[in-house]
Predict the 3D structure of the following.
Amino acid sequence: MAAQKAQRQNQEHQSATAGNSKIGCAAQASKVLLLTGTPLVNRPSDIAPLLNMIVKDHIRLTVPTGLWSSRVFTDIPTDEGFVRAFGEDGLNAVGRAVWKELLPCVLSHFQPERTPDFPTMTTETVKVPMTPEQATVYRAWETQSLTRSMVAMLSRQTSVPPDLAHLPRFRAYLDGGRRICNMVQVQGHTYAPKFARLLDLLEQNPGPALVFSHYLNQGVRVAEDLLRERGITYVLFTGQETDRQKKEAVERYNRQQVRVFLSSPAGGVGLDLHDTVSVHIMEPGWNEALILQAIYRAVRYKSHSQPQAVVKVYRYYCYRRVMPLTTPLPPSADVYLMEVSRRKERVNQRFLEYALQHSMEQSDVGQCVVEGL
């Protein structure tokens, strides 16, 4: 058995039938790859290299020459790549040939029924326009950082520069652009409209709140200053604290001794935050899985004392105002990353739908196995 990041199964979530069927399939298999994740490792498309790893040699022997080189399961980071692999309405000839080879490999995807012990999550996008001061600073950064090909790429919202040698420069531009979208300081004044909007939403949603930012000085510290000015209590969890301070921060928040839990990515994975009413993601990012991990610190099994609780998730981005009679400008770093993330999510969802059609719980093969146990 090959196990990667496999965690102990939570029997409280799984029926005996589902558990036994998996055990039976594993007993009959010559090799088992045991994975845990949401729902296929971090993202649905992550199953692609795993399938390649399992069937690579077999496909080379049985599939016509040239088929493997098309990289059916790896060339799907875009909508175009997905269509090439699977076709517009279903699996094309290439996809069907590969799925035929995968029939002996039974994929199991067990999703427990939602119970009142799981809070409901709603998501809202918070659009915040740049201030004139931000727009001026952003334009200067853009002029300094971008090549013509990068400007064209931003407008097309493609995720990789035509010349890969420019990728580090492009990522540096996006990193600086997101910081400017969060805040700028001009002549001693701080302009941070996203965080001003955060204060409004905290007022509209009384109760414990998780605030997450990728940045310390242009994110967590900005929120900290505004919360202090408003007299709103908070704790910090940024990775700079000692183990004791981290433990105390979680305990104080869960006892509702403070209102806001301010966190950066260094805050860690697996925190169990209780009775959170709202989650605020202050900027989009490259890694959607990292953002989801932050959200799921507050949306967990039995994380709320009241049944059927609802957690509101707010995802912020800063955009440029469209001025009449002016030359259109590329989207802000926030807008660009948000749109790329949405496109990737559409591709992931489509791939997941196809993959789960062949899961043990859905396919004829899987049903035969389950019924035979």
In short: The mean pLDDT is 75.
